[in-house]
């Protein structure tokens, strides 16, 4: 896709996000979309380490919970202003990600995934059992809404929607800059082959660790935003099921693309809303759908579209075979 067409597409999506409240029927629809935006931000981070770097982190929801509980604990128990707590949510998740990454990234393939799944479960248990810090299974109640910024107040679903949308726009812009930079190319080189990346001067461990830290930074910021939006936290946010939901969003939208996780993360909550009558059979319904997508649309919606565009452009650039010489008129023959 040409840069001009890409800019037009992003501009249309931005305009659609601004105009959505005009189409929403009620505040409930604004709430559903705002929640989808928050998880889209976290899914962008997961896509960086999975889709661009090739490391499947199953503890991603745990880092999102770290960011959320950072805001909840600081604002409720220590009366720290929301925006300071929100900034620290990304910092704490990143610092923890540094120590987890140093250990886990020495492993490869499914060993890395199994290790991070164990780390994620430990994070869930810490949140659930450490009553004096996290309030245990009861959770944290009464998290304050984001503090006003000048004349802007965030006390209504509409104002919270635009706040979440603005944070998502900034997150997408930053991710675009990262993935299009030399650093982003290094991530993709690691995904293709550690040995090949090392042969061209890339330090695999340092590069993977940086990708891991950037990924969990997005998770932490999404968690902090989630805490200020929902205003209640429970240990379930750290469950592996949340990471599974983000993974489904990536696969549906398209791994290793910038737009794919956004499409998947925004589409899946609405699909779940319209299938609420099947809530008890959620995995029975989504499981076969996911299998069919992996078989027939392995690159996701956006990935398949981009692949089709590449094939079409290649076909248009391919030289056409010369047409056969036309028959001579009047039956003239050479002697």
SSE inventory with pairings:
Elements: H1 3-23, H2 27-52, H3 60-77, H4 82-104, H5 110-129, H6 131-134, E1 140-141, H7 157-180, H8 182-192, H9 194-199, H10 204-230, E2 232-233, H11 240-253, H12 259-274, H13 282-296, H14 300-317
Antiparallel strand pairs: 1-2
Helix pairs in contact: 1-7, 2-7, 2-8, 2-10, 2-11, 2-12, 3-4, 3-5, 3-10, 4-10, 7-8, 8-10, 11-12, 11-14, 12-14
Please name the defining characteristics of this protein.
mainly alpha; single chain; disordered C terminus; 335 residues
Tally of contiguous helical segments? 14
Mean pLDDT, to the nearest integer, reads: 87
Number of strands: 2
User: How would you classify the helix and strand content by structural class?
Assistant: mainly alpha
Order of helices and strands: HHHHHHEHHHHEHHHH
Rg, please? 24 Å
* N/C terminus separation: 55 Å
The dominant shape is: globular
Widest beta sheet: strand line-up: 1-2
Largest sheet: 2 strands, antiparallel
Q: Summed up, what is this model?
A:
With 335 residues, this protein is mostly helical.
Describe the model.
- With 335 residues, this protein is an all-alpha fold.
- The protein has a domain at 29-240.
- It is built from 14 helices and two strands.
- It has helices spanning 3-23, 27-52, 60-77, 82-104, 110-129, 131-134, 157-180, 182-192, 194-199, 204-230, 240-253, 259-274, 282-296, 300-317, and strands spanning 140-141, 232-233.
- Helix 3 runs parallel beside helix 5 (110-129).
- It is globular and about 65 Å long.
- Mean pLDDT is 87; it is low at 327-335.
- The chain crosses the membrane at residues 34-51, 58-76, 82-103, 110-127, 160-178, 209-229, 249-271, 283-308.
- Keywords: Cell membrane, Membrane, Transmembrane, Transmembrane helix.
- InterPro entries: ABC_transp_permease (IPR001851), LivM-like (IPR043428).
- It comes from Pseudorhodoferax soli.
């Amino acid at each position: 896709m040409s840069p001009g067409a890409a800019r037009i597409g992003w501009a249309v999506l931005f305009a659609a996000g601004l105009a959505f409240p005009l189409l929403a029927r009620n505040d409930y629809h604004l709430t559903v979309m705002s929640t989808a935006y928050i998880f889209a931000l976290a899914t962008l981070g997961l896509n960086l380490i999975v889709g661009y770097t090739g490391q499947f982190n199953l503890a991603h929801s745990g880092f999102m919970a770290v960011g959320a509980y950072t805001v909840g604990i600081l604002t409720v128990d220590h009366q720290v202003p929301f925006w300071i707590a929100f900034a620290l949510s990304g910092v704490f998740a990143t610092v923890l990600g540094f120590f987890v990454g140093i250990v886990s990234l020495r492993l490869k393939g499914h060993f890395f995934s199994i290790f991070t799944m164990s780390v994620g479960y430990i994070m869930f248990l810490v949140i659930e059992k450490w009553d004096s810090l996290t309030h245990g299974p009861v959770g944290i109640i009464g998290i304050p809404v984001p503090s006003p910024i000048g004349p802007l107040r965030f006390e209504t679903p509409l104002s919270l929607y635009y706040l979440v949308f603005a944070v998502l726009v900034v997150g997408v812009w930053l991710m675009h800059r990262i993935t299009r930079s030399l650093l982003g190319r290094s991530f993709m080189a690691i995904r293709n082959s550690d040995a090949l990346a090392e042969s061209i001067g890339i330090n695999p461990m340092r590069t993977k660790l940086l990708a891991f830290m950037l990924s969990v930074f997005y998770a932490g910021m999404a968690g902090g935003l989630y805490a200020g939006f929902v205003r209640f936290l429970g240990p379930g946010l750290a469950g592996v099921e949340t990471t599974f939901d983000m993974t489904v969003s990536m696969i549906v939208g398209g791994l290793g693309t910038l737009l794919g996780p956004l499409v998947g993360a925004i589409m899946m909550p609405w699909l779940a809303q319209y299938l609420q009558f099947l809530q008890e059979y959620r995995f029975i319904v989504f499981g076969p759908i996911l299998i069919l997508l992996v078989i027939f649309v392995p690159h996701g919606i956006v990935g398949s579209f981009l692949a089709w565009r590449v094939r079409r452009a290649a076909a248009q650039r391919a030289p056409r075979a010369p047409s056969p010489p036309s028959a001579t008129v009047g039956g003239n023959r050479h002697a």
